[in-house]
Amino acid sequence: MILIDKRTKKHPDAMTPDELERPSKGNKVYYDDAVKGFGLRVTSGGARSFILNYLIAGRERRYTIGKYPDHSVASAREEAKRLKRKIRDDGYDPLAKMQADREAPTMTDLAERYIEEHLPEKRPSSQRNDRATITQDILPGLGRHKKVADIDFTDIKKLHRKISERAPYKANRVVSLISKMFSLAENEWRWRSRLDGNPCKGIKRNQEVKRDRYLNPDELARLMIALDEFDDIQAANIVRVLLATGARSGEVFAMRWDQLDLNEGTWTRPGATTKQKTWHKVPLSPDVVNLLSKLFDDADDDAEFVFPGGAAAGHRGDLKGPWPKIRKAAAITNFRMHDLRHSYASFIASDGRSLPIIGALLGHTQASTTQRYAHLLDSPLRKATTRVGARIAGAGKRGAKVIPMTKGRR
């Protein structure tokens, strides 16, 4: 029998797919005489699909080329010829390839493995950020069911451009996270060929300008008044501690009583909560010690965290609601919570302290990280050199003897 399309001129043995009878049950394959192994499978329900029977390693297998009428007889026959050549010349197994593609990891698989295996190594705040980015940006943007091996440079560039329209800096963070996920997929989990490379390579990041936002004296005064009047006392106390210690918000949220020595006036932050993942012991100011001592007196005997909360971690997790209200009450604009840390550094610098001292109090392990605060030293340096200049100038006014320089004098 010869399979033909409707418009093809018939010869005695030719039939169109529509002319082939459906079986009473199950399915029946009508084979084409023109290409060995090529045929049309017809089910009792009337569904028709082109198939190819082939031998691989001595075993017969059946591969479905596609449905009729999505494929014409002519196009399906040509595909069958192409597959037979690859099977014969290259040992290609189309059914095995299809199964491998079906089982290949998707972006959802990659996200789940990243969250399960890599995320626990990061700080709690970073874990929250990564989860949110994966759920809100990466999976919807790249496709939950798209294969990891199929993601390319164009996909990443398109997503970066889309997010850049509303949040340029966030777009850079998203690409950085995707790059890390694909690096793990390629180098550790072998879910992607090294020949394909990291699809994030070559993505041009949006230009970022380091923020130099610090509280000025008037803003500081208004902030302290707003904190005194704020109804969420715990939130107000957290802001006070952030401002007076320069700690990161996640470190303060997770502050534990066993990390504090209120007699010595120190706070030892464990590596699990610090960005550098190293123990960091810092002195606390008397005002902070007094505040924490009052909180300790009011805390339950078995209290673990200084700022307990309903979160799964057992402590307060954020100030997303209170912080905008506090800023509004203090009439402070364009100011993030992390800028409290920057303000703390500016207070130290304005007191004439050196960059190493600033870095030590902030918990920096690299001098280059603290270098961003170098310009803050301009004011105390200027004051110092002005005092020296005034002292030098004043010395002459008090009657110091000036010896004129004469020609030939040495």
Secondary-structure map:
Blueprint: E1 2-3, E2 14-15, E3 27-31, E4 38-43, E5 48-56, E6 59-68, H1 73-90, H2 94-103, H3 107-118, H4 124-142, H5 153-164, H6 168-187, H7 217-229, H8 233-245, H9 249-253, E7 260-261, E8 266-269, E9 280-283, H10 286-298, H11 322-329, H12 339-350, H13 355-362, H14 367-370, H15 378-397
Parallel strand pairs: 1-2
Antiparallel strand pairs: 3-4, 4-5, 5-6, 7-8, 8-9
Structure commentary:
It is a single chain. With 410 residues, the protein is α+β, with helices and mostly antiparallel strands. It has three domains: 2-98, 2-Layer Sandwich (Double Stranded RNA Binding Domain); 107-187, DNA polymerase, domain 1 (Orthogonal Bundle); 217-377, Intergrase catalytic core (hpI Integrase, Chain A, Orthogonal Bundle). Helix content is 46%, strand content 11%. The chain contains 15 helices and nine strands. It has helices spanning 73-90, 94-103, 107-118, 124-142, 153-164, 168-187, 217-229, 233-245, 249-253, 286-298, 322-329, 339-350, 355-362, 367-370, 378-397, and strands spanning 2-3, 14-15, 27-31, 38-43, 48-56, 59-68, 260-261, 266-269, 280-283. The strands form three sheets. The protein has a four-stranded antiparallel sheet. Strand 5 (48-56) and strand 6 form a beta hairpin. Helix 8 (233-245) crosses helix 12 and helix 12 runs antiparallel to helix 13 (355-362). The longest helix is centred in the middle third of the chain and has 20 residues, at 168-187. The protein is elongated, with a radius of gyration of 36 Å.
